Amino acid sequence: MYDVYLAEAEINSNYAVFSSDSARKQELLNSVLKKHKITEAVLDTSLAWYSGHLDTYFKINENVSKRYTATAEKLRRQSGMPSKPNLGTTADQLLLPLNKEYILLKSSDLRNNAFSYRADTTLSRYGGNYELQFNILGISNSLRPVLTLCVQCRDTAFVKRDTISRNGLFKSSLDVLQGKQAKKLYGSIYFPEVNPGMTVMVRDMILIHSFRNRNPNLNQPVTLPVAQPPK
Q: Considering the chain, what is the average pLDDT of its residues?
């Protein structure tokens, strides 16, 4: 898990490179699997097991997170970098308003079966690509929530919906037309079915904005009239 953290950090810090080279991204992730002599199927099976043993996973995740944070801070001090490095102008990581490194979603926490989120930053960018990513644990064949990502412009809302079908790193992205200025970003994770014993963990939720070009014929979001953000 520590090496997975490192790989994800490498991808995020060099987003412009990895976003346009999916083979390179997969090669990096495969190197982690090869180092530990496992397959992606084995990792998925392990995460599925931990989704039913979240107390154990929390302890592992906390230890891994502390180790990663301590190592990153040590390297920053050695290199003379500030604790919070400046983000590039072509790919900005916009932190979402989560008070903890991870959150637990239980049935009692899900009003109308949904967890709502919104960017805590005032948006003013024109066009570009918005990618929301986070790690999730607790997903099963009978529990497949739907992620909605919405970028609201002055007269149009761009909306993307994706089904979360597996545990681990999840990403969803949409493109905003170049002439459209984003004003707000919000969305939700909706659970079609909720049972009293359900617990889902979401951690490391970040939003990345970039000006990379994507194939306009792939994964086109739906454009809708302006809608009010969730209350």
A: 79
> How far is it, in rounded angstroms, from Cα 37 to Cα 52?
24
Rg over CA atoms, the chain: 18
Q: At the topology level of CATH, where does 2-224 sit?
A: Jelly Rolls (2.60.120)
Q: Tell me the domain boundaries of the chain.
A: 2-224
Contacts of 62 (CB under 8 A, 6+ apart): none
161 beta partners: 148
CA angle 203, 159, 96 (to 5 degrees): 30
pLDDT digits (tens, 9 = 90+) for 9-57: 787 777 667 766 778 888 988 999 999 999 988 988 888 888 888 888 8
Q: Where does the chain show beta strands of DSSP type E? A: 91-95, 102-106, 114-118, 126-137, 146-153, 157-163, 168-190, 199-210, 222-224
115, 189 Cβ separation under 8 angstroms: yes
Contact 18, 25 (CB under 8 A): yes
**In angstroms, what CA-CA distances link 225 with 48, 127, 152, 174, 222?**
39, 17, 9, 16, 10
Instruction: Give Cα separations from 192 to 114, 115, 145, 147, 189 (angstroms).
Output: 9, 12, 6, 11, 10
* In contact, 32 and 7? CB cutoff 8 Å: yes
Q: Are 168 and 53 in contact (CB under 8 A)?
A: no
